Amino acid sequence: MPVPFDAILPAPFGKVGVRADNERIREIFYLPENVESLAPRSDVILRLAAQLDAYYADADALFDVPLAIAGTPFQQQVWQAICAVPRGGLTTYGDIARKLGGVARAVGQACGQNPLPIVIPCHRVVSASGIGGFAHHAEDGFHLEVKRWLLRHESAMLI
């Protein structure tokens, strides 16, 4: 059974579920609007909530909340490459794969395992043929709409 959320915060596209320890943010999840909110009960989540609100108001806002990032060495490389994509910019799974000496599918899987979306902006990674992504969510529509919202918010030009 999954660990319950430590907070469920409002977002322009629905809600954001957060899991954290006392000092760092461990996971962020996109949730639909109909999920009940849960107020932050720790300083680190209050800090994240303020930074998310700043980002929703201004896509140039920066995140500096402490993070607990756990992943394989390859996932860590992919997430670092994602963080290098500037706001308003896009890259493809294939571009990251070429830079890292991997394959696009593995990059897509690493994106799908990103525990900290928005902060590690995996929405800036698209397929060579369009927006793509979120295959780990079975292209359920909601997650693609979140990705579209984030890209529009950041004024990214879709390829």
Quick recap:
The protein is of the alpha+beta class.
Description:
The chain has a 3-stranded antiparallel beta sheet, covered by helices on one side. A two-stranded parallel ribbon has the order 4-5. The chain folds into 2 domains: 7-57, no CATH class; 73-153, Winged helix-like DNA-binding domain superfamily/Winged helix DNA-binding domain (Arc Repressor Mutant, subunit A, Orthogonal Bundle), CATH 1.10.10.10. β2 and β3 form a beta hairpin. It is 35% helix and 14% strand. The chain has helices at 43-57, 73-83, 93-100, 104-112, 142-153, and strands at residues 7-11, 14-20, 25-31, 91-92, 125-126. α3 (93-100) crosses α4 (104-112). The chain is an alpha+beta fold and 159 residues long. It is an enzyme of class 2 (transferase). It catalyses: a 4-O-methyl-thymidine in DNA + L-cysteinyl-[protein] = a thymidine in DNA + S-methyl-L-cysteinyl-[protein]; a 6-O-methyl-2'-deoxyguanosine in DNA + L-cysteinyl-[protein] = S-methyl-L-cysteinyl-[protein] + a 2'-deoxyguanosine in DNA. This is Methylated-DNA--protein-cysteine methyltransferase.
Side by side, the strands of the main sheet go 1-2-3
- Derived from helix and strand composition plus strand pairing, the structural class reads alpha+beta
Tell me the major beta sheet.
3 strands, antiparallel
Task: Compute the separation of the termini in Å.
Answer: 39 Å
C-alpha-based Rg, rounded: 15 Å
Low-pLDDT regions: 135-139
Number of helices: 5
What would you say the CATH architecture of the largest domain is? Answer: Orthogonal Bundle
The beta-strand count equals 5
Task: Determine the CATH superfamily of the largest domain.
Answer: Winged helix-like DNA-binding domain superfamily/Winged helix DNA-binding domain
User: Any idea how many domains?
Assistant: 2
